[in-house]
């Protein structure tokens, strides 16, 4: 009886052991097959974990534009994926942009980040001939002076407006942000003193302003700042501000002779500093005190930007881009060399747009340099037929550039779709 019970127990053990052995063999075969499959086909990283007990590698990918599609080795990217060390091909694409690929090597136990900025597919088109003074309103519509027709016209919805007539020889045009009016500095014949007046861009109505001289529009879009263009006013108070519909307010300036023969005036976005470009260079005043705080000889093309505090960028005679701030006692630093006129400030930001012209490398290219980070990036490369840019204006949303070339042809460049 005891032998029968022992035999029965042995049969049960053998019956349970055989399936376990079969299962173990199958698992071993599966493991070896998976190892071979991994080495030959490179499984996605999130399916492969390191077995040495250390922290797995990871790669965070940031893209511009943010809605771009990302792939790793032609598979969808998931920021939660765990990667094993090795080589990967990162693909990024988006509508309206050139797709790109970057090869990345992930090191063991590394947590790294990668930023990829896509270049937009640029569209460029000629808008008008014999043009000057390009500018933008708050609605993103392009305005300019059609010199041959003596009209201020608007480009909107891919069409030109009939425009409104202007009179005399035009020296300067400022566009109010709402797009309803323009401030025009014009003279008759050889009357260089000229006068300022407003032009209603809907009706063409003209209205004289009680001031003369080169002007600049304040940050509020309603205050005009300027310097008198004749000697009939108090020479110690050559600057003024004017609220449309009001009376001019004069300002005293140290060394007022520095505004003689001026060709440009700019007020920073805070309304604290006044920069004037003249025959010898650029001078800067503090508006409230009238104190001259800085001079830059052989300098031209001043541009106010925020960094985040106001700063003045300009070009020197050696074609370098320079930058100075009140916070740094107006000491000037060189940002870049070999910069060509013109330059312009990105609205509301710390970036300066500049251009380089090289007919052997595709024509005029537009670049941006960030004064806060010193980073430089390519915005677009225009067609060679566009020629060298002479006047430059950037839309408020930073998505478009208008420029007038050396042949006075107005071009529109769309930076982002």
List the helices and strands and how they pair.
Blueprint: H1 2-41, E1 58-64, E2 69-72, E3 75-76, E4 86-93, E5 100-106, E6 111-117, E7 123-128, E8 131-136, E9 142-146, E10 151-156, E11 159-160, E12 164-165, E13 169-175, E14 181-187, E15 195-200, E16 206-208, E17 215-217, E18 223-227, E19 239-243, E20 249-251, E21 264-267, E22 273-277, E23 281-286, E24 291-297, E25 299-306, E26 310-316, E27 321-325, E28 333-336, E29 340-345, E30 351-358, E31 363-370, E32 376-381, E33 389-394, E34 400-405, E35 410-414
Parallel strand pairs: 1-6
Antiparallel strand pairs: 2-3, 2-4, 4-5, 7-35, 8-9, 9-10, 10-11, 10-12, 13-14, 14-15, 15-16, 17-18, 18-19, 19-20, 21-22, 22-23, 23-24, 25-26, 26-27, 27-28, 29-30, 30-31, 31-32, 33-34, 34-35
């Amino acid at each position: 009886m005891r032998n029968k019970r022992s035999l029965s127990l042995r049969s049960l053990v053998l019956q349970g052991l055989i399936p376990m052995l079969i299962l173990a063999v199958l698992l071993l075969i599966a493991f070896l097959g998976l190892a071979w499959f991994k080495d030959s086909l490179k499984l996605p990283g999130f399916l492969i974990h390191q077995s040495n007990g250390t922290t797995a590698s990871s790669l965070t990918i940031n893209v511009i534009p943010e809605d771009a599609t990302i792939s790793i080795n032609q598979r969808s990217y998931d920021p939660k994926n765990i990667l094993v060390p090795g080589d990967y091909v990162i693909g990024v694409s988006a509508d309206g942009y050139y797709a790109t690929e970057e090869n990345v090597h992930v090191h063991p136990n590394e947590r790294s980040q990668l930023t990829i900025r896509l270049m937009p597919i640029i569209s460029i088109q000629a808008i008008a001939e014999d043009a000057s003074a390009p500018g933008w309103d708050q609605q993103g519509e392009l305005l300019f002076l059609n010199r041959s027709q003596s009209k201020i016209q608007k480009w909107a919805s891919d069409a030109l407006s009939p425009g409104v007539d202007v009179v005399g020889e035009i020296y300067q045009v400022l566009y109010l942000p709402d797009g309803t009016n323009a401030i025009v500095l014009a003279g008759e014949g050889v009357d260089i003193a000229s006068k300022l007046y407003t032009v209603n861009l809907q009706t063409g109505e003209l209205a004289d302003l009680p001031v003369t001289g080169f002007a600049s529009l304040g940050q509020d879009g309603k205050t005009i700042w300027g310097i008198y263009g004749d000697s009939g006013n108090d020479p110690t108070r050559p600057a003024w501000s004017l609220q449309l519909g009001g009376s001019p307010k004069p300002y005293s300036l140290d060394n007022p002779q520095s505004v003689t023969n001026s060709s440009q005036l700019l007020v920073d976005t805070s309304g604290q500093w006044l920069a004037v470009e003249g025959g010898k260079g650029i001078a800067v005043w503090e508006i409230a005190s009238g104190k001259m705080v800085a001079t830059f000889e052989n300098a031209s093309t001043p541009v106010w930007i925020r960094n985040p505090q106001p700063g003045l960028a300009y070009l020197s005679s050696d074609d370098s881009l320079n930058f100075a701030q009140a916070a740094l006692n107006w000491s000037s630093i060189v940002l870049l060399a070999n910069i060509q006129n013109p330059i312009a400030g990105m609205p509301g930001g710390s970036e300066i747009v500049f251009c380089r012209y090289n007919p052997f490398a595709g024509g005029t290219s537009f670049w941006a340099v960030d004064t806060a980070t010193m980073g430089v990036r390519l915005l677009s490369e225009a067609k060679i037929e566009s020629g060298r840019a002479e006047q430059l204006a950037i839309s408020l949303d930073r998505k478009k550039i208008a420029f007038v070339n050396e042949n006075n042809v107005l071009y529109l460049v769309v930076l982002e779709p």
